[in-house]
Amino acid sequence: MDNTSTHQDLVPRRGFYRLRTSMSEPAQSQSDSIAAKTIDDSFQLYDLRVEVICPPGARILCGAKPGDFFTLQGEMLHLPPGQGFSIYSLAAVLPLLAAKQRPTHTNDWMSTDAEIACPDPYCKSKLRITRTGLRTFSHADVTAVPLSTKQ
Length: 151
What we know:
Layout: E1 10-13, E2 16-19, H1 30-38, E3 42-53, E4 69-73, E5 76-78, H2 87-101, H3 109-112, E6 115-117, E7 126-138, H4 139-142
Antiparallel strand pairs: 1-2, 3-4, 3-7, 4-5, 6-7
């Protein structure tokens, strides 16, 4: 690849293009761009809904209400308008979300276990993670790192 070019190139990133700002950043060759268009770079992730559940009459200590939720679509977390979510509750569930988004074996605990305890040991609430749909993504739309065309 020729990195001696003096002009700035466009580099794909997260569904849009940004300018290549450094000459140490490789420019995409014509053969790379042709290969990127001809290979299937798709993958699938589940959309998730994370909902607060609580036994009737139990007190929730994080300020949430039963039924409060957020959704995760790809890497984007969405809250309903006007609703917040405790950063401590989010911290408890966040490490599991990327794994829950991916297809797993039927016998894997990630396929069967869906309720996460509130991080407060005195709170009886839980966060229920539900797979709500399957979404297809393109590798080229979510990273600037090209797929290897060599097997």
